[in-house]
Amino acid sequence: MKPIDLIEHPEGGRYREVFRSAHTVSKYDGTGRPAVTHIYFSLNPGEISRFHKVTSDEIWHLYQGEGVHLFLWAETDSPPQCVTLSARENCFCHVVPAGTWQAAAPISETVLAGCSVAPGFEFSDFTLMAYHSPAAEKLVSLAPELAGYIGM
Length: 152
Hints:
Elements lengths: L6 E2 L5 E7 L3 E3 L5 E3 L2 E7 L5 E6 L2 E8 L2 E7 L7 E6 L6 E4 L4 E6 L4 E8 L7 E3 L5 H9 L10
Antiparallel strand pairs: 1-2, 2-5, 3-4, 5-12, 6-11, 6-13, 7-10, 7-12, 8-9, 8-11
């Protein structure tokens, strides 16, 4: 499938699911999920993906554009880590462990990425960081420059 007809994503940007495995696996809580799902995900200049987390591992893949900055935070006393996917960094994919807060922004131009989630993604496994939550308050105290990456 070509990366067309992308729709708005709650975290920001646009996406389109392009694969959902017919094989199922059991998650840690016993619920069944597709073995893996994959989406195309796009951000335009000035757009961001706000801090969110999912209950499965997620692999980001860079397809087009100069690159993307991924901000990752394990809700510790350390500030978020920034991983840059780009040809300049010779880094084209990165694994975000399950339960890790993540946000993203394109380096400059529109970026097209792919996100593979295993076990497969369901919106019931998705949490968008709320601005006045304890996690948001801690994140802002550690990295005030990332306050704009938190939802309302």
